[in-house]
Amino acid sequence: MKKFLSLLMAVMMMATVLAGCGGDTKTEDAGTQEPAQDSTPAPAATGSELIFTTGGSSGTYYAFGSVLAGQVSSSTGSKVTAVEGKGSQGNIELMDMEGAQLGFVQSDVMSYAYEGTNLFADFGQVDCFSTVAALYMEQVQIVTCDPSIKTVADLAGKNVSIGDSGSGVYYNAIDVLGAYGLTESDINPTYQGFGDSAEALKDGAIDAAFVVAGAPTTAITELASSKDVYLVSLDDEHIDALIAASPYYSKYVIPADTYGLDSDTTTVAVGAVVIARDDVSEDDVYNFVSGVFDNIDAITAVHAKGAELSLDFAASVTSVPYHPGAAKYFAEQGIEVPTK
Fold first, then answer.
1. What span, in angstroms and rounded, lies between the C-alpha atoms of 304 and 287?
2. 246 C-beta neighbours (distance < 10 Å), count
3. Which residues partner with 102 through β-bridges?
4. Given pLDDT bands bounded at 50, 70 and 90, which one contains residue 41?
5. Local structure of residue 3 (DSSP, 8 states)
6. Is-contact 305 112, C-beta < 8 A?
């Protein structure tokens, strides 16, 4: 009997955690009681245990993703666990291999995967996921401790970290350099994540680093606590050229007080989007969206990025269709979004 019970429990745990593209993670209906006529829609009372891949511990994905996971878990029936991830490309690839149900991604990388281009030209098209919500803008931050580096053109001949090889940051860096007539060969590139880039800047091993994440970014904030840091601005002429070539960018101004700088920084940004595997249940994705957007004040009290949450921006993605659970929530708010 003990062996039978142990086996039964193991099977139940595996059924809860694993989900395939053709699988089914739908849960039982929340109940049979009829709601009062004046009641508002509520999150489903039951849900699954979901893995939410974010980014490295020194980036915004992990910090903010952990806050979101906690809020959704405490206010709905779905239990979301935020785990460190390898960023946009790694999160999508892990999702394709059924290792996670939710993930943070850059809007441009999400499009690459869905179309099978750029980062995913060799890996192949990945399309078994849908949009959950766009949450905030991720700024292209060019950080340096050298006050003589004032423009992107000044990076020529310098030691510059341009993100992990093949990462979304790498492609953002190549795009920005290209707008100024520079290529990878015009700099001395290193390929590092946010934390390693910050350490290399602190030690003087590199002159500048590209960091693409929501500001304030932990790696830059921690660096600024021990060194004078500067962010390199982009001018309007080159921003316009970049957006014309790559329309998924938008102009963005980082306020000076974000890192205690002397002036604002003008740059470009892409969207930070949460995606879900198509086979995650409608109830679970509805719970995630409602758990976030019904509790913006509580989230903002814990993490500054909460102040950037808005329904209009959340529903603004057009490159990848929305999950039915997200579409249901947005429809209740009077917003229609495209679905598969």
1. 22
2. 17
3. 52, 276
4. low
5. H
6. no
Between CA 323 and CA 331 the distance in angstroms is: 12
- The predicted structure's pLDDT at residue 35: 36
- Tell me the C-alpha distance between 227 and 83, whole Å: 30
The CA-atom distances, in angstroms, between 324 and each of 6, 27, 112, 277, 280 are 36, 15, 22, 11, 10
State how far the Cα of 272 lies from the Cα of 305, in Å rounded to an integer: 11
> Do the Cβ atoms of 163 and 276 come closer than 8 Å?
no
Query: Which own/partner contact pairs does 234-237 have at CB distance under 8 Å and 24+ positions apart?
Result: 234/152, 234/176, 234/179, 234/266, 234/267, 234/268, 235/151, 235/266, 236/266
Mean pLDDT of all residues in 160-172? 88
**Residue 289 · residue 42 · CB < 8 Å:** no
- The H-assigned helical ranges of 116-227 are 168-179, 194-203, 218-224
- Alpha-carbon distance of 333 to 123, in angstroms, equals 38
β partners of residue 105:
273
pLDDT in tens, 49-74: 999 999 888 788 999 999 999 999 99
